[in-house]
Design a protein that fits this description.
The protein has about 180 residues and is of the alpha/beta class. The chain contains four helices and nine strands, in the order βββαβαβαββββα. The protein has one domain: Glutaredoxin.
């Protein structure tokens, strides 16, 4: 498994989006950061709660100069259902993340185990959650990678952290490899 390092370039990321144009990390030009939220997919009720919260905070991220995408390894049909059924009309929702690409980002991959508590079948394999703040130069600033769907970073906390980082010109941490 790959381990991304702060202050180093992140892997390329190009995905189609539900109801919109293709999205490329290299094409992003945020004032401060790009927030990349990897989620498990349509089958995950915790993802639904997380992404609905993210959508309500999109104006707050925009005010701070942060572009946002959420993406999963779901196919187009499931991504379209996610966008519609979860009411994510304002959120850029990427899909079709290849599992080898998920591993490049250091994400964990799980095997499907049938229907979830909301009655949606898990895919045969899918990536677990991850959240990344990427600087405009394509380097990693912050990462949170999880093996489970529980206890994710809260977006209100991320917004407060961005305010602190900007005010204090706080450097990326965790950059020592040896």
């Amino acid at each position: 498994m790959t381990r991304l390092m702060p202050r180093q370039p992140v892997p390329a990321l190009d995905v189609p989006t539900a109801g919109g144009p293709a999205w490329s990390l290299a094409a992003q030009q945020p004032a401060r950061f790009t927030l990349v939220v990897f989620f498990r997919g349509l089958h995950c009720p915790i993802c639904r709660t997380q992404l609905r919260d993210l959508q309500t905070k999109l104006p707050d991220f925009e005010k701070r100069g942060v572009s946002v995408i959420a993406l999963s390894s779901d196919d187009e049909e499931r991504a379209t259902r996610t966008k519609t059924e979860w009411g994510l009309d304002g959120l850029t929702l990427g899909y079709g993340l290849p599992l080898p690409k998920a591993r490049e980002w250091g994400l964990y991959v799980s095997a499907g185990r049938g229907k979830t508590s909301i009655g949606v079948e898990e895919p045969a394999q899918f990536s677990e959650p991850g959240l990344f703040l990427i600087r405009p130069d394509g380097t990693l600033y912050f990462a949170s990678v999880q093996t489970m769907p529980f206890a994710r970073p809260q977006f209100a906390d991320i917004l407060n952290a961005i305010d602190f980082v900007v005010a204090k010109d706080y450097p990326a941490r965790g950059e020592v490899a040896a």
